[in-house]
Amino acid sequence: MPHSNADQFSHVVTVATLSRASSREFDLVPDAGALARLREDLDLLGLRKVSLRGTLSPEGKRDWRLKAMLGATVVQPCVVSLKPVTTRIDEPVERVWRTEARRHDAVAEEVEIPEDVNEEELGREIDLGAVLSEALALALPPWPRAEGVRLGEAVYSAPDTEPMRDEDARPFAALKGLRAALGKADDEPDSQ
Description:
Blueprint: E1 12-14, E2 24-28, H1 32-41, E3 46-59, E4 63-77, E5 84-98, E6 104-105, E7 110-111, E8 119-121, E9 125-127, H2 128-139, H3 173-187
Parallel strand pairs: 5-8
Antiparallel strand pairs: 1-9, 2-3, 3-4, 4-5, 6-7
């Protein structure tokens, strides 16, 4: 299972160096060492052509918005056969950093979480490397399968018993058996 460690790849932009008058374009391409760390961190067989390209733009009086495109070619093991599965990822990425802190309810001791999961609290720095790492982890196919590979059915049972199959566990499987039994009863001649 992939695990995420934002410290594996970092590319920090200090907020104080950003101009409120214009957007800052960026083209982030990890070097070979960072790619190796990302590949290991995400349990990938291969990782290439990784980039995060976009802009950081001022929003409102103090907030910042990132609009970017994540590109990567990943190789993962097939969940069935473990053969390598190559996937091209091209995903839009959007984040907003807000200066206002999330409200804290002292009575309930709860922190209000914003509805938009792409919003974060703005600090002194924005780590574009962490954004790339997180976006890549979220964009990975969760169940990669090699072409033509199908997930079979495993059937187990105790000795001298009939195994239960997936079909038997379906909600109407018992009704199917009952209908078959009733059908046999209808076919029998009346003994009166």
